[in-house]
Amino acid sequence: MRFRVDGVLHEVMHSPKSVQASIISRFKIMAEMDIAESRKPQDGHCALVMGGKQLDFRVSTLPTVYGERVVLRILRKDSVMLMLKDLGFLPSALERFESSFKKPYGAILVTGPTGSGKSTSLYAAVNVLNDPGRHIITAEDPVEYRLDGVNQCQTNARAGLTFARALRSFLRCSPDVILVGEIRDQETAGIAIESALTGHLVLSTLHTNDAPGAITRLVEMGVEPFLVSSAVDCILAQRLARKLCSDCKVEYAPKPQALIDAGYRPDNLPEKIFKAGGCKRCGNTGYRGRMGVHEVLMMSEEISKLTVAAATAEEIAQVAREQGMLTLKEDGLEKVRMGHTSIEEILRIIV
Q1: What's the order of all strands across the beta sheet hosting 201-206?
Q2: Coil, helix or strand for 117?
Q3: DSSP letters of 260-278?
Q4: Any residues with CB less than 8 A from the CB of 50 and at least 6 apart, and which?
Q5: What are the backbone angles phi and psi of residue 343, rounded to the nearest 5°?
Q6: pLDDT cut 90: percent of the chain above it
Q7: Closest by alpha carbon to 28, among 13, 2, 46, 12?
Q8: For residues 228 and 274, is the Cβ–Cβ distance under 8 A?
Q9: 112-142 pLDDT, tens per residue?
Q10: Which helix (H) or strand (E) element contains residue 348?
Q11: Mean of the pLDDT values across residues 309-321?
Q12: CA gap 129, 123 in Å, rounded
């Protein structure tokens, strides 16, 4: 049995093979799954109250050569109430990101791999926008958190309710803000971009490694470059980095060459930084909790011209950096300088 703590798996115990079937059957009963079916994957969920807090468990089973494997994903209802200032933004990045919400229309995209906190950032943005004067509709798969005052729609592929079909229906309901859980195909991308051009604020996620890559990804999906340049207003790329434990982090003076190799400029090296220690409070890992590492790209006139000209992601990134964008690595190294995390952690999550 392994627990994923702050994104890293830790082995916590071993159980005898003889109890495997019993444990799995118990999980299946709790999640209202078919206990007689062990040859195909299943998904379910259950809810428990622990320590006075409501917890949702997403349960997934997978048949393997050693028997079924069960994965539990824990969702805390109160985590959705995070505000943008709680997500670890640097002041400059937060100012750039928040400025995109002030416009009544346009597309705001959050990119990154699975488990990088994209949904949490979108919910934090919706919390900023959520007031009685705005009609907000979301299409999600699945709806993991319930938001007061927001109309949330769960997609259902079996019933034919895809992201694209839900989006078409949304446009007939006079929304002000539309949140699309994920842009997965050309049809969804096209409708989302057109919605942003017709007076709606559209928030969604996309799987790319960095912010400039989202522009080329949309073009590769079949969206016309001139539509992307007109509709997209802001792209946020992010990762989650473990924070150093405040009780046991160790201050030290690294060698200048090690800092340069990590990515610091030779003329701007920090004198002292911190590394992980280890204590009982953090389970001897040296880390406790996580924070976001961000890259905020604003669509400027120069980047719009590059998009229409089908420029590469590298060319777009170069211009964005000249206009003040910090890359994911630069943002992470700045947080190392501030003592929030370690160089080793930033190099672990960002190539």
Answers
A1: 151-154, 136-140, 177-180, 201-206, 106-111, 232-244, 287-298
A2: coil
A3: HHHT--TTS--S-EEE---
A4: none
A5: -60, -40
A6: 70
A7: 46
A8: no
A9: 998 888 988 988 899 889 999 999 999 988 7
A10: helix 343-349
A11: 94
A12: 10
